[in-house]
Each structure stands twice: as C-alpha cells, then as structure tokens.
Amino acid sequence: MVASIKPHRDAIGLTDGLLLIDGSWGPAAEGQAWSHVHPATGEEVASFPIADAADVDRAVRAARRAFDEGPWPRARATERIRVLRRIADLVRERGDELLRLQALDNSVPLSFGSVYATSSAFVADVFDHHAGWVDKLAGETLPPYQGGDHMVLTLREPVGVVGAIIPWNAPLLLFAQKAAPALAAGCTIVAKPSEYATFAVLRLAALMEEAGLPAGVLNVVTGPGEPTGDALISHPMVDKLSFTGSRAVGRKIIAASADGFKRVSLELGGKSPALVFADADVASAAAITMGTVTLGLSGQVCLAQTRALVHRDVADEFLGTAEMIGGMVSYGSPFDPAVSASPLINTRQMERVLRLIGEGQAEGARLVCGGTRGEGDLASGNFVAPTLFTDVSNDMSIAREEIFGPVLSVIPFGDEDEAVRIANATEYGLAATVWTSDIKRAIRMTKAIRAGTVGINGYQLEPHAAFGGFRQSGLGREGGRPAIESYTELKTVLLPFTDEMM
Ligand code: NAD
Q1: Could you give the 3-state DSSP secondary structure of residue 470?
Q2: How far, in Å, is the centroid of ligand 1 from the Cα of 166?
Q3: 193 in Cβ contact with 171 (< 8 Å)
Q4: How far is the CA of 249 from the centre of ligand 1 (A)?
Q5: What's the pLDDT at 119?
Q6: Which is the closest atom of ligand 1 to the Cα of 170?
Q7: Residue 151: which pLDDT band, with cuts at 50, 70 and 90?
Q8: How far apart are the first and last CA of the chain?
Q9: Angle of helix 171-185 relative to helix 120-131, nearest 10 degrees?
Q10: Is 187 a catalytic residue?
Q11: pLDDT (average), residues 74-86
Q12: Dihedral angle sign, alpha carbons of residues 407, 413, 417, 421
C-alpha cells in the first residue's frame, strides 16, 4: 500500500473547504459537498461545497459591486502594486504549505516542488511580474492623421468581472496566471478551481485576502463543471472568461460567451513535438523528453513533448536513454522524497490512458516499456507505468490524441522537411522543442514550426514570456504584455483642439 496521506493532511490542519464570497468564507446555500479522493491512495482527503447557480450568482454580484463601486479598479497604482507584492511575499513565506496542499490535491510529489509548473516560487514570480505592469499599462498618443491641432489618445481600462476557470494539474500556477494579470489591470474575479484540485487554490485565495484585497475583489466558488462551472460561464454579469483546460470545455466556453459577447482567453491542450536531429546531444534530448512525459505530473502537462520525432540514424540511441529514464521513475506517496512522479488524477483518466495504450498496440506501434497499470503496493492509486512506443506513425491515435499520461511516442524521420511536416500535422500548436547543434537549422525550425512556444535544446517557462497556443491549443496568451492587455478594454479619446475650446 502507498502510505496514508492523512497524517500530512492533519499536520497542516486541512479542514473542509468553504466558498469565498464578498470577503467572507461560508458553505453553499444548499449544503451540498464534494468529497475529494486522493489519487495515490484512494483515501478521502476532505470535502468542499458544491456551489450551485444561486451561490455563483451571489459571488458574481459581489464581484460586480466591487468592480462598479469598490476601490480596487480606482486604486492608485501604488496600492495595487503593494497588494500584489505582498501576495508574492506571502506565497514565498508559505510556499511549503501550498505545495503540501497541492500534493493533497493532485499528488504531484514534493520532490518536484522546484520545477516551474508546480513550484510555489514560480507562483510568487507571477505575482511579482504582474505587479510590475500596474504602473506601465499605458495607452498611446497618436499623431493626428488628417492634420490640425487635435490629439488622439488611447487608454487601457480594466475589462470588468473575470470568471477564471482552473484545471487540476498545476492549480496554483494556473490560478496565479489568471488572477495576477486580472488584479493588476484592476478587474475583480470569480475563480472556480477544478473539483480535483481545490484545496491549494483555497489556501492561496486566503493568502490573497490576507495581503489586503478589498472584499468582493476575489471570490472563489468550488464544485464541478455542472452545476458550478456552467453557472459561472453563463452568468450575464461576467465580462471575461479565462479558462485553462480541455478542448471540450473550451468549446462550451466559446458557446456560452456568444450570449453577451464575453471576452475569452483559452489555454487548451497540446500534442507537442520534440524534433531530435542526428547532430543533437541525443542523450540529453531523450532524457529531457522522456522526463517531461513521465516525471512530476506523469505527462498530465499541456506542454509535454509527447511526440518525439527522431532522426532514423539516432533512433536506437534515443530509445535506449528514454527507456532508462522510464525505469528510474518512482511512484508512491507524494510526501515521500524518493517519489518522482504522480498517479493519474482519477480512475476515469487512468482507464482512458490504458485504452489509448491498447489502441497504439492494436494500430501497430511497438511497445518498448510500460503500458500497464501499477500493481501490488501501487494498486490503491491510479498509477500507469512510464510507457515508451516506437515505430509510431503520425496518423495513429497515440500520435494524434492528447493522452495526458506517461506515454511517449517515437516517430522516426529522414530529413528536415519530413520532420517539419510531421511536427505540424496536428490539430494543436502549443509547444515544440528542437534538438540540434546547428544554429542555422535551429532558426529554420523555429520559423517553420506552428506552435506558441519553441524551445531550442531544452525548455524553460518564464513568468514574463507569453505562453499559449496556435490552432486548437487556445486563444490568447498568459504572461507578459499580451496577457495583461487581455484583461483590459482599449478606449480611444479624441481631443479636437478647436478655437472654440481654447
Ligand atoms: P477540464 O476541461 O475537464 O476542466 C477544466 C476546468 O473546467 C475545471 O475547473 C472543470 O471543473 C471546469 N469545467 C468542466 N466542465 C465545465 C463546464 N461545463 N462549464 C464550466 N466549467 C467546466 O480539464 P482538466 O481535465 O481539468 O485539465 C486537463 C486539460 O487542461 C488538458 O486538456 C490540458 O492540456 C489542459 N491544460 C492546458 C494548459 C495550458 O496552459 N495550455 C495547462 C494545463 C492544462
């Protein structure tokens, strides 16, 4: 058996969650609750309220009032900067506690706590980065187009009430990526964490309140897509929906936004390629590519490089290293320092991953290692062994579908043109990595690949670098100027200096 997580829950004093509405914590009106089952042990961790349409309405109205009448959208830049920097400081001070809560949510191991997507330091950096935008969110002064003594100015104003919908895989970071720019721009928020990762978000929200946000600026409603998420995305008083998650829910959000023309940002999935050329450091390419797909969140990462396009001459070397890395992955309690990877989030996701592995075999891909569910001590959790396929062709389901599990598909290629063609033959376009020692080739590949982020000989997210997808990987960007601007409306001001005005 994987060791019980209950002593860790008790050690940090986790109790049942509550809704945050208008500065107060309380239960759902109807008293319904969701009990969170830990993915590594099957134990019940704690429960939280299922907010229904009436609870969501209370939260949205609180955010609306705070936007229309409250101090936050009208606050001086210094005040917003002070609160955002204080949030960053509190996240740094309480980072260990936040990571423990995240481990109770989705079982990401504490040993992985320094890696960007799951680290609290990165979350603090996101708040610091956006604090820096508050006094730089400027419009423009345009030269008069038709001559004369008039001026044309543009102003950036907060977009209004933001509905932020968060997935379970990196709940702290993905909450911060929405809340920090929204707050920096002067918006108010109703956030809905995933029903599979609620507790870390609730604690981060409590720290944000402690940092000095006025009541109603941040509200958190908990519960699943239906009823909670549905009520939020269809609420007429929400001005913008900011979502990270699956394409299926992304489509619902676009449909819901049509009524009222809400602004929308979507960060969706990926089927990202790693292109490994014969002149690359093949061992590093294999170790890092297999690592992004198996370590930490076990491939439950939107930017995981799940298609390894490997030059035929180095395919055997790549497979040897990747298999070795797969063999080093260790599963168990996220609180065990020797554990390096998580289980899958729930049994439904585990069964889906096992089904796709079966389809890969049936379609003719060769299984190098893994492919099975964890047994023995691991049977209490949703563990799937690190899985490596070779001889994969890009039309197989394992090369097309976002598996969201520890499965790497190796697709051999012969030359650059073929590599680019395969890399771009996907409905997604989130990320890619190019592995080569030839700088000219690296530049050619960077231009040819249709993806929102391209890494050369590695991959490292930065809080100030825009992140998002081409094609079905999403709409809009998180991080940097494009993100903060997406939480604003642009207003044009016309100043005609006529004689009568002077
Ligand atoms: P999901 O779409 O199932 O759920 C995401 C959120 O949407 C959850 O909070 C969920 O409760 C909510 N939701 C579900 N149904 C809803 C509805 N009808 N109305 C409103 N909200 C609803 O996704 P998931 O399983 O939590 O996360 C995995 C997906 O997220 C993957 O596809 C992954 O690629 C993607 N992802 C993308 C990024 C990125 O930055 N591009 C980052 C992480 C995850």
Answers
A1: coil
A2: 6
A3: yes
A4: 7
A5: 87
A6: 43
A7: confident
A8: 82
A9: 10
A10: no
A11: 98
A12: negative
| Residue 435: C-alpha distances to residues 417, 442, 469, 481 (Å) | 15, 8, 21, 29
Ligand 1: distance of its center to the CA of 85 in Å? 28
Closest ligand 1 atom to Cα of 192: 9
Catalytic-residue membership of 267: yes
The residue whose CB lies within 8 Å of the most ligand 1 atoms, and thus the one to mutate among 118, 232, 246, is 246
CB neighbourhood size of 495 (10 A): 12
Any atom of ligand 1 within 6 Å of the Cβ of 390: no
Q: What is the pLDDT of residues 395-423, one digit of tens each?
A: 999 999 999 999 999 999 999 999 999 99
Ligand 1 centroid from CA 208, angstroms: 23
Are the C-beta atoms of 402 and 270 separated by less than 8 Å? yes
- Give pLDDT tens digits for 432-485: 999 999 999 999 999 999 999 999 999 888 999 999 999 999 999 999 999 999
Span 238-270, pLDDT tens digits: 999 999 999 999 999 999 999 999 999 999 999
Question: How far is the C-alpha of 364 from the C-alpha of 396, rounded, in Å?
Answer: 9
Bridge pairing between strands 161-165 and 188-192: parallel
Structure-token pair, residue 337? 């320092």
Quote the pTM value.
0.96
Q: Report residue 501's pLDDT band, with 50, 70 and 90 as the boundaries.
A: low
Residue 65's pLDDT is what? 98
Choice from 126, 169, 264 to test ligand 1 binding pocket (greatest atom count within 8 A of CB): 169
